[in-house]
Amino acid sequence: MLKSIIFTILLAGALVFFVISCINLIKNMQTGKKKDDRSDKIGERIKRVLIVAFGQSKILRDPNAGILHFIIFWGFVLFLFAVIESIIQGFNPNFTFESAGPLYSAMTIIQDVLGLLVVLSVLYALYRRYVVHVPRLEVGKHGKIDATIILLMIMFVVVFMFLQNTAMIAKHNFILSKFEIRPLSYPVSKFLFNGNNSATLSYEVFWWAHIIVVLAFLNFLPYSKHLHVLTSIPNTYLANIEPEYYNIKPLNLDDENAEFFGAADIEHLSWKQIFDGYTCTECGRCTAACPAANVGKSLSPRKIITDIRHRTHEKAPLLRQNAQIGKENTPQVLEKTLVHDYIADIELWECTTCGACMKECPVMIEHLDSIIDMRRNLVLSESQFPSGLNNVFRNIEVNFTPWAFNPADRAAWAEGMNIKTMAEDPNGEVLFWVGCAGSFDDRYKKVTKAFASIMQKAGIDFRILGTEEKCNGDVARRLGNEYLAQTMMKENIEKLNGYGVKKIVTACPHCFQSIGREYKQFGGDYEVIHHTQFISDLLKENKIELKDEEIKEKFTYHDSCYLGRYNDIYEEPRDILKNIKGSEVVEMQRNKSKGFCCGAGGGRMFLEDEEGDRINVERTGEALSVTPNTIASACPFCMTMLTDGVKHFEKTEDVSVKDIAEIVLENIK
């Protein structure tokens, strides 16, 4: 009776404290005033939870740590039955789940086998952190102590559960119930308790120890980076569904009451962006994959997200207090801002928006959403951005391209090719969206001509916009100039819709992403195809054929981030190269969904490197390490960066950089 009373008081106190902590966290989340509805596509969201959260698919992208975490995760999930059983025993000491029949057999076997695996996994996790010193796990003294406390608590929960079971077996004179199977606990019980009468007292000690550690663990979570134990599954459910996962959300620029655009501090973020901060496991997968971090720049996606969390813990309670007492309170904390004081401007401008951080994040955090919002604040609200962007923005506004080219020359590449514009005849089967690089850059104009020639050989009745085409808006948008981006996007949409365009093909992944995915936000709904997909289809349909004679060419293909990670197009470019007789296709170490950025995305094409090494040099070095004759690409930005990289290594005589379209045209019948 006394045990039940003490247990009831302990349990009630622990649950009340836990609920209060959770309520405070929820109130902190509500500090974010930016609207964000995540109630759509329920079926797809549930499916992703099953695959990513319960199937641990993203965790397993790193097999060593993945298997480790998989065991700990599922051990904890399945140990919930043991925890529930122990809690009920606090009121009814004789309770077990034996009435579940054969299911109880499975439960008891799992407790023994997974219990041992979890203990071993925890020990290995501590070994990786303290002996191996895995770089991405180096999180500072506080983070390391936090991780150690959690890992030890997990181990103690399992060890005390195990000892509790061994004592229970001895307490019942080593007679197991009908459906009870304990392959490890039983022999250990025989070893520990055979021949002594301490089983009953030991059981009570281990039961209390198990319960106390469980309740302590529960109440430590809201104040730990391991809060993800509670938030990771909801965050996985709430993340945007791919391919919208990588889309940039629009700003309402027509809001007359808006006092700012973008985000300077936590109150400008959405509840979901703050929830991302709570969910971060600090595993470091994002930063380990980040191209900027890899070459020694300041940007760390993990730091961006944890800075949001730290700032929320610091500022949100004060904002709530101010709202309650209805008066100004301006301690030093409120005089600071998330941007500048916690996150330096240079960190934000070093992002290439390649999406590697989001691809690797096991709990579906949306780093880019927050980074772009903070860039928007710097550009639209503070007018603080690298001086080199002044010309970029001015050129887009005046010349409709990031470069200082005359818009009247946009279709000059097509002279003599007998290509019709939409203004001349809008009845073609597909619109070829050339893009700024394809229209003006001398190197990429060769790609534009090559692809146009392929379509002509295939008998495709295509059109171009010519001088009516404008920058797709991607560069301005990723650089935070949402106003300029929306201007370009809406003007293009008006033109496209005016011609009744339904199908578009483009050789630029940035145009592909922007027009195909993000134009829908403003009424531009088109079927957009990348030229590698289009060429692949032409080959499959025998509308073009490759030469029969073999060539001696060794290719390595560089994945464009906007084509690969953003849109899951990996196989078509490779299949095209493999279909060329005599060709050999070798993969770089980092390829496909783990591919390494060229360094030009997110507007970085137009920014100088202020610190660290150059991303394109890192990537080109990786390409050259597999000794290709040709580095194949499918993006104008990638081509520029890789070409510069080959020049850096003084390999222009040995290695060429070519677009897939150029390679196909060289090998077409």
Short key terms for the protein model shown above:
four-stranded parallel sheet, 8 strands, 669 residues, mainly alpha, 54% helix, 4% strand
Quick take:
The protein has helices at residues 2-29, 42-54, 63-89, 102-132, 140-171, 185-193, 199-220, 228-238, 271-279, 285-289, 291-294, 301-325, 332-335, 338-342, 345-349, 356-360, 367-381, 389-399, 436-440, 442-457, 474-478, 482-498, 509-518, 531-540, 571-578, 615-624, 636-648, 660-666; strands at 430-433, 462-463, 503-506, 527-530, 553-557, 583-585, 630-633, 656-659. With 669 residues, it is mainly alpha-helical.
Notes on the protein architecture:
The protein is built from 28 helices and 8 strands. It has helices spanning 2-29, 42-54, 63-89, 102-132, 140-171, 185-193, 199-220, 228-238, 271-279, 285-289, 291-294, 301-325, 332-335, 338-342, 345-349, 356-360, 367-381, 389-399, 436-440, 442-457, 474-478, 482-498, 509-518, 531-540, 571-578, 615-624, 636-648, 660-666; strands at residues 430-433, 462-463, 503-506, 527-530, 553-557, 583-585, 630-633, 656-659. The protein has a 4-stranded parallel sheet, sandwiched between helices. Strands 6-5-7-8 form a 4-stranded parallel sheet, sandwiched between helices. Helix 5 (140-171) packs antiparallel against helix 7 and helix 9 (271-279) crosses helix 12. The longest helix is centred in the first third of the chain and has 32 residues, at 140-171. The model has no long low-confidence stretch (mean pLDDT 92).
